[in-house]
């Protein structure tokens, strides 16, 4: 069964980019537009996604808050979360890790690295 | 690649939105109307552009966006004051970013030098922000404020490990490492798994794994989410230490890690990981006992050879008092399957362990499924009421236009159908007629709703104005404040698109010609900063856009002089103030002495006027000396339908746009006066207006129509001048669907477009201004002829 990835990004471009890349690699993709939406989508799912990929800078609820919210919920806390970050965001990586991110993907990502990161954290 | 091209397009669409948000945000900050959300949104806009640009390898754009973003981050964290100077740089940077985006989209070039200079200014701001914070330079990571942006790891405190390169490079393949891996609780809390790390590690080569479970406490003291296991991995690999560290990338701060080169060969044989369920390893890594585990070839080998869990599940292993004991059993067990079975049996007793984020043993899923259900019901309710951010859908414009076209046809056919039914003798009071009425009502509503899809706020055009104003103000050396109103006023998308050019020119004109120089303004007792106001509003089914300035107003004496010199008006013409003001719209009028690099770009107000008229719009000006001028544009809300008066001219049916009509009247014989040649005037109350014979102007007939047998339609042209159109009869008033004549046939002077009437016939829609203007030319040539004769 193919794995399901929940992607959360406020940028349509990044969402489409992730979808195209992941679908081409045989993943199912579910999308959300910001952290708040991500929580809502997650709650509406019958089955937890295998991995969540989230952006950091987003309106309403940012990536940090989203991760904290997931990690603070007994139901979802075991879901691996990858953070999308830019090369230069050393501080962000650290904050994301403190918030409970499982790992990160550096933007711009190439498909191999993206899949590698997913495989690394997915059960 | 198609998908990529589509995403690229999405990227540029999104860029446009983000640039607009960026500019609006910066302006809000400048006006002191910003809260932290605004600043965040501004930062996000640039950040997103950078992210997308990176994906498309638009390096120049990425580089500029990066330094811009860094500066905005300083602003966001209040290390940089939002002073006027700072915002000026930011606004110019926003403009430069917009240029870079356009260049990336259309393949054009940008002013590299200018951008580099601007990037330098931004860097200076960052330096300023950092310099102002005293402890920033030497402070340790405590405040996390001293972020080094070009350093991938920021201010992490990791200790470099000395690596003997000769050792690493020496005898490849076959580097040997001893890796000590001690996960912390938080490694698991982040949904990482020691087992997965080890799995990835063993993919790099051949090795053995020892698990030290000596730290696992007795059950009463065991924290189900605690990390008690330490691993020692001996690995033989062709890869370098760096590659090994990469495996630990996600967990290196959540564990103790030591990697040291090893002497001597690894004695264990190769491990085949293929047959091992990672869950087993995971489970074992979480639930462990007091014995040393050997994950080496012995245990795995046994698993490989004897993986019959069905048999193992029947194992009659007695449950022990604590996990340590269990693990003790496990270590004595013959195969991993036996261990699994024993653990699985114990699992239900371990309430707490089911909550642990570790992958669960086979007995667990039922329970976890139950715990999932109850809260889910609640949250579903919540998510139903919570508005999701995506309340809009994106539709290809072509589809909308196709729909509009079809609805247009529907309207025509609905009208045709009812007309034919009545012609065939349908009684007005019949039920079918009532049905027709309802159908008509519905069709109209559908049409209105469909038209509304194309309607957009003028905001998209207004958003471009601040930049324009900045640029023009800079070049002209004037200080200008832009005020916009009614930016949410909606109008058809096509109107919006074609509004940009005339609006741009009018604003340029207002700043360049309308506003005085700062010193002149001060001398006149005005504020140094001039104001240009752009306001949009709906007024009687049209959109009206006013562009007003508080400048000097039209210099009527000069305008009249110029118009006279250029032969646009007779030198001794007696004109009202309004008429003089409107002279600036005449073709060939250009206040030559004022030509500057801005307004004098070869586009006169006559072109502006023509482009507005082409949209079915009107433009006029009012001006007060010393107080300023106001240009008023009035445009139809849609270009797809038009309210028209259906009239007969000769054998033809013509539609006169209702917006141009003031009144209609039946000319009486003594009201119509000959005016030399074929020209006639009609007296309307105490004014004489030219009577335009539409049939002759359009070439339907050569003979002048009888004025008294026809109907005169009083119309107002764009310049406000009035004329009377002479037609044979009025058939009625109707909304018609506009069909482009140019697209289907060709341009015809005096005709704006065509439509299909209820009876299926094609009717032409009159271009009132053009018809009046051509008749004027005839009259004025006659007028000049008279003058020349007199001389």
Mind explaining what this structure looks like?
The complex is a heterodimer of chains A (123) and B (791). With 123 residues, chain A is α/β, with parallel strands linked by helices. Chain A has a single domain (4-121), classed as Response regulator (Rossmann fold, 3-Layer(aba) Sandwich). Chain A has helices at 12-24, 35-44, 63-71, 90-99, 111-121; strands spanning 4-8, 28-32, 51-54, 81-86, 103-107. In chain A, strands 2-1-3-4-5 form a 5-stranded parallel beta sheet, with helices on both faces. The longest helix of chain A has 13 residues, at 12-24. The relative contact order of chain A is 0.18. The mean pLDDT of chain A is 86. Chain B is α+β, with helices and mostly antiparallel strands. Chain B folds into 5 domains: 2-143, Up-down Bundle (Four Helix Bundle (Hemerythrin (Met), subunit A)), CATH 1.20.120.160; 165-366, 2-Layer Sandwich (Alpha-Beta Plaits); 397-456; 458-636, Histidine kinase-like ATPase, C-terminal domain (Heat Shock Protein 90, 2-Layer Sandwich), CATH 3.30.565.10; 641-790, OB fold (Dihydrolipoamide Acetyltransferase, E2P) (Beta Barrel). Helices cover 46% and strands 19% of the residues of chain B. Chain B has 28 helices and 23 strands. Chain B has a 6-stranded mixed beta sheet with strand order 15-19-20-18-17-16. Chain B has a 5-stranded antiparallel beta sheet with strand order 4-1-3-2-5. The longest helix of chain B is centred in the N-terminal third of the chain and has 29 residues, at 2-30. Residues 133-159, 163-172, 267-276, 284-321, 346-390, 592-602 and 780-791 of chain B have low confidence and may be disordered. Classes of the chains: A alpha/beta (123), B alpha+beta (791). Chain B: It comes from Fulvimarina manganoxydans. Chain B: Residues 437-639 form the Histidine kinase domain. Chain B: Residues 305-321 have a biased composition (Acidic residues). Chain B: It catalyses: ATP + protein L-histidine = ADP + protein N-phospho-L-histidine. Chain B: Residues 641-777 form the CheW-like domain.
């Amino acid at each position: 069964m193919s794995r399901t990835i929940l992607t959360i990004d406020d940028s349509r471009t990044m969402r489409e980019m992730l979808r195209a890349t992941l679908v081409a690699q045989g993943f199912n993709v579910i999308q959300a537009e910001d952290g708040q939406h991500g929580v809502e989508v997650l709650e509406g799912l019958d089955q937890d996604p295998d991995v969540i990929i989230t952006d950091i800078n987003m309106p309403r609820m940012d990536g940090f808050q989203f991760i904290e919210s997931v990690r603070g919920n007994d139901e979802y806390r075991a879901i691996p979360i990858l953070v999308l970050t830019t090369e230069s965001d050393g501080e962000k990586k650290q904050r994301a890790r403190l918030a409970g991110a499982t790992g990160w993907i550096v933007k711009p990502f190439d498909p191999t690295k993206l899949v590698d990161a997913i495989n690394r954290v997915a059960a | 690649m198609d998908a990529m091209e589509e995403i690229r397009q999405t990227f540029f669409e999104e860029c446009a939105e983000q640039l607009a948000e960026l500019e609006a945000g910066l302006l809000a900050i400048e006006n002191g109307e910003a809260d932290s959300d605004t600043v965040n949104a501004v930062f996000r806009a640039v950040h997103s552009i950078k992210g997308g640009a990176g994906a498309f390898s638009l390096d120049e754009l990425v580089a500029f966006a990066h330094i811009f973003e860094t500066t905005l981050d300083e602003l966001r964290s209040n290390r940089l004051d939002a002073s006027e100077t700072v915002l000026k740089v930011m606004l110019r940077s926003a403009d430069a970013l917009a240029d870079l985006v356009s260049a990336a989209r259309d393949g054009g070039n940008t002013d590299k030098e200018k951008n580099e200079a601007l990037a330098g200014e931004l860097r200076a701001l960052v330096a300023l922000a950092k310099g102002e914070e005293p402890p920033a330079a030497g402070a340790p990571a405590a405040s996390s404020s001293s972020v080094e942006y070009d350093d991938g790891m920021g201010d992490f405190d990791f200790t470099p490990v000395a690596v003997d390169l000769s050792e690493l490079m020496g005898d490849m393949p076959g580097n040997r490492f001893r890796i000590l891996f001690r996960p912390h609780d938080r490694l698991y809390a982040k949904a990482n798994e020691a087992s997965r790390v080890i799995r990835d590690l063993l993919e790099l080569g051949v090795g053995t794994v020892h698990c030290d479970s000596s730290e696992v406490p007795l059950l009463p003291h065991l924290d189900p989410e605690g990390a008690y296991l330490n691993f020692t991995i001996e690995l033989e690999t062709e890869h370098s230490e760096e590659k090994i560290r990469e495996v630990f990338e996600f967990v290196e701060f959540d564990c103790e890690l030591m990697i040291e080169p090893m002497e001597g060969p690894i004695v264990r044989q190769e491990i085949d990981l293929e047959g091992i369920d990672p869950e087993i390893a995971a489970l074992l890594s979480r639930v462990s006992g007091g014995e040393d585990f050997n994950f080496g070839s012995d245990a795995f080998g046994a698993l490989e050879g004897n993986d019959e869990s069905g048999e193992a599940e029947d194992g009659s292993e007695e449950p022990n008092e604590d996990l340590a004991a269990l693990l003790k059993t496990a270590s004595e067990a013959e195969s991993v399957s036996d261990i699994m079975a024993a653990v699985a049996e114990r699992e239900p007793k371990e309430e707490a362990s089911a909550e642990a984020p570790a992958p669960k043993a086979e007995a667990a899923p039922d329970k976890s499924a139950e715990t999932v259900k109850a809260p889910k019901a609640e949250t579903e309710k919540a998510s139903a009421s919570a508005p999701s951010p995506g309340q809009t859908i994106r539709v290809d414009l072509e589809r909308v236009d196709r729909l509009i076209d079809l609805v247009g046809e529907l309207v025509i056919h609905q009208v045709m159908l009812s007309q034919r039914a009545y012609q065939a003798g349908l009684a007005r009071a019949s039920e079918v007629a009532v049905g027709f009425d309802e159908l008509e009502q519905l069709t109209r509503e559908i049409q209105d709703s469909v038209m509304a899809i194309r309607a957009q706020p003028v905001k998209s055009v207004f958003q471009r104005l601040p930049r324009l104003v900045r640029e023009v103000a800079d070049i002209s050396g004037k200080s200008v404040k832009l005020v916009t109103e009614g930016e949410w006023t909606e109008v058809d998308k096509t109107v919006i698109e074609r509004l940009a050019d005339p609006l741009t020119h009018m604003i340029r004109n207002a700043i360049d010609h309308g506003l005085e120089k700062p010193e002149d303004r001060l001398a006149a007792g005005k504020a140094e900063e001039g104001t240009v106001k752009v306001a949009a509003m709906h007024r009687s089914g049209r959109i009206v856009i006013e562009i007003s300035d508080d400048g000097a107003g039209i210099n009527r004496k000069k305008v009249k002089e110029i118009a006279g010199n250029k032969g646009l008006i007779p030198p001794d013409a007696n004109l009202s103030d309004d008429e003089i003001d409107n002279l600036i719209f005449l073709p060939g009028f250009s206040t030559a002495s004022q030509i500057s690099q801005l307004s004098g770009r070869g586009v006169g107000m006559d072109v502006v006027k023509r482009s507005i008229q082409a949209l079915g719009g009107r433009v006029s000006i009012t001006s007060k000396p010393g107080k300023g001028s106001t240009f008023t544009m009035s445009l139809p809300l849609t270009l797809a339908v038009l309210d028209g008066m259906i009239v007969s001219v000769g054998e033809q049916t013509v539609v006169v746009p209702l917006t141009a009509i003031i009144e209609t009247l039946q000319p009486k014989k003594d009201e119509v006066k000959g005016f030399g040649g074929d020209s006639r005037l009609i007296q309307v109350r105490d004014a004489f207006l030219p009577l335009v014979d539409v049939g002759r102007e359009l070439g339907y007939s050569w003979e002048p129509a009888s004025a008294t047998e026809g109907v005169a339609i009083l119309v107002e042209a764009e310049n406000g001048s009035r004329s009377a159109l002479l037609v044979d009869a009025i058939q009625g008033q109707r909304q018609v669907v506009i069909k482009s004549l140019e697209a289907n046939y060709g341009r015809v002077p005096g005709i704006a477009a065509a439509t299909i009437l209820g009876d299926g016939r094609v009717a032409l829609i009159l271009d009132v201004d053009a018809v009046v203007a051509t008749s004027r030319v005839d009259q004025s040539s006659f007028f000049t002829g008279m003058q020349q004769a007199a001389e």
